[in-house]
Amino acid sequence: MDTTPTWRPAERVRGFTNSVFSEMTSLAMRTGAINLGQGIPEAASPVNLLRYATDAISTGENQYAPASGLPRLRDAIAQQRFSRYLTSYQPSDEVVVTTGATEAIAAAVLAFCGPGDQIITFDPCYDSYPAVASLAGAQLVAVPLRQDGDGFALDVAALRRAARSARSRLLILNTPHNPTGKVFTTAEIAAVADICLSHDLIVVTDEVYEYLTYDGREHQSIAALPGMMERTVAISSAGKTFNVTGWKVGWACGPAHLVGPLLAAKQFLSFSSGTPFQVAVAAALLSPETRDPWLDGLRSSLQRRRDILRDGLERAGLKTFRAEGGYFLQADVRGWGYDDDLQFCQELPRQAGVVAIPVSAFYQNAESAPRWLARFAFCKRDDVLSTAVEKLASAAPGSSSRTRTRTRTSDTPKQPDYRTIDNR
Ligand SMILES: *Cc1c(COP(=O)(O)O)cnc(C)c1O
Questions:
Q1: CA of 327, closest atom in ligand 1
Q2: Whole-angstrom Cα distance, residue 371 to residue 359?
Q3: What's the confidence (pLDDT) of residue 18?
Q4: Phi, psi angle pair for 317, to nearest 5°
Q5: What percent of the chain has pLDDT over 90?
Q6: At what angle do helices 256-266 and 100-112 cross, to 10 degrees?
Q7: Other Cβ atoms closer than 10 A to 343
Q8: Helix or strand (DSSP H, E) at 251
Q9: Which string of DSSP letters, residue by residue, matches 326-389?
């Protein structure tokens, strides 16, 4: 009897084979290169926040939180949303604490979309959006952002065409945007809102970088626009705001008719998580002495680190795009004679001792995707960025210290593994 298993993975995970994020991370480990691929922040977290969490653990706050989150954290989130955006949510049934923003996005999509439904987002996009669309059996329609000088712009006409389909149900808006670093302008957000209102779309807004905007730019929540509160789920997380990406404390705010079904899905994904971390995040959000100086410092230090990396990339002959918010800079690899971002990123660790991510990995439409952009994270220590920048300068074409070796392939895994989500 042949007992060889014949099962295959379910259709819904079959597309999850893109391993470029794990490929680049293991390349960094094997070559000892500086990993500017992953957006894991290297700076410290607010000391008070850390103390709140250890206090919570030692005083016994270690059991399940309610599925919707600890009441004091829901209160704190409602206060934060009101003081920052003037959007008012009832902590009792309009705020849900989740296992990071990732779970909030997944629960929103699973609660409202199924086979036959279309989810609209922008191209390129954060990679959990296509994955969760697939888990829901829904189709993701990614409307390309238009290159506009050294930035990216909303293509209103293309969005309107996509929204016109009777099957379009939900739109995911991410601003500040990963991977482009774009912060949607007031006019763009108004245009998105207008289209969602006229086509009766639910809006899921991923605002995890809500505080990380530079050069005086301000993040705006689409939920605050007239008529938008009742159709918008606003999602954020403590990870990027307080440099605690490992805590996975996120949240979703919206009217009860959206957040109720989201909670119904969420309770069977994780039920709840991170009770002592929820205690700590509540305390930090409620304490202006912890929160405000920390956030001002974080924003200005990230802006300074962006400038170190941007100036270094430019000096090394890699033209950069404007990073208005978030953790990442995109650079044009054609400056080094490449026309393939994947090849550039596979060769960069050996050539320059630096790891970046090929931006084509974030694109859904292969035909319209630029294949010449690499994404570099600047949420790293100053000395790490300075070293990376020096290495890039000496590896640049035309640099006297350049030793160019065009080795590749041996670093490319033959079999793509099922994707591990380590791309943040
Ligand atoms: C980091 C990131 C997330 C994930 O947030 P978690 O709170 O860690 O789940 C979601 N969206 C974007 C755009 C991100 O960059």
A1: 15
A2: 7
A3: 62
A4: 90, 15
A5: 86
A6: 110
A7: 16
A8: strand 249-253
A9: SSEEEEEGGGGT-S-HHHHHHHHHHHHSEE-EEGGGG-S-TTT--S-EEEEE--S-HHHHHHHH
Q: Report CA(201)–ligand 1 centroid distance (Å).
A: 22
Can you tell me the mean pLDDT for 27-40?
93
Pocket test for ligand 1, best of 45, 125, 206 (most atoms within 8 A of CB): 206
**Atom 8 (ligand 1) nearest CA:** 100
Mean pLDDT of the chain: 93
- From atom 5 of ligand 1, which residue's Cα is the shortest distance away? 101
Q: Which atom of ligand 1 is nearest to the CA of 105?
A: 10
Q: Is the CB of 210 under 6 A from ligand 1?
A: no
Read off the amino acid at residue 333: V
What is the bridge-based pairing of β-strands 34-35 and 202-206? Answer: unpaired
Pairing label, strands 249-253, 95-99:
antiparallel
What number does the ligand 1 atom closest to the CA of 177 have? 13
Ligand 1 center from residue 102 Cα (angstroms): 6
pLDDT digits (tens, 9 = 90+) for 173-183: 999 999 999 99
pLDDT digits (tens, 9 = 90+) for 333-359: 999 999 999 999 999 999 999 999 999
Q: What is the pLDDT of residues 379-411, one digit of tens each?
A: 999 999 999 999 999 999 988 766 555 444 444
Ligand 1 test: best mutation among 105, 126, 175, most atoms within 8 Å of CB? Answer: 126
